[in-house]
Amino acid sequence: MVKPIPKRLLIHTISVEPLTSEEGWEKTYGDPETISNVRVEPKKTLQRSNDEYSIVGDLIVYMDYTHTTPFKVPKKRDRITFYGDQYTVEGTNIYYGVGQQIHHVEVVMR
User: Fold this and answer.
1) Beta strand pairing status for 79-82 and 85-96?
2) 1 in a domain, yes or no?
3) What is the pLDDT of residues 50-100, one digit of tens each?
């Protein structure tokens, strides 16, 4: 059995608003839900095209299956609020322990 992420490292709280509808530029979100015992870390990536380089800043939310309360995986394009700033979910990566048991999820936000 794989040990969970230590709770002492899961020091952050986020708010998740599910995307309920999208028509053109108009997006409607559901009621926010607070999720605690997560970890939010910055991540910077270098993107390049034929004529320029740019650094893109993302955030990664680590959600532990055992300690994150409630454990709900946000979907792509949901809105997450962290310390008053709003981000959009770009994708999720699910990591498994033994068998089909989820160990943790990494949510990429921009």
Assistant:
1) antiparallel
2) no
3) 777 776 668 999 999 999 999 999 999 999 999 999 999 999 999 998 888
Q: Is the pLDDT of residue 48 over 70?
A: yes
Give me the domain span that covers residue 95: 7-109
CB atoms within 10 A of CB 45: 10
Number of structural domains (the chain) is 1
Question: What CATH number is associated with residue 100?
Answer: 2.40.10
Strand pairing partners for 81? 15, 86
- pTM (two decimals): 0.86
Q: Is 2 domain-assigned?
A: no
Tell me whether residue 26 is in a domain.
Answer: yes
Residue 105: how many other CB atoms lie within 10 Å: 20
CB 53 within 8 A of CB 101: no
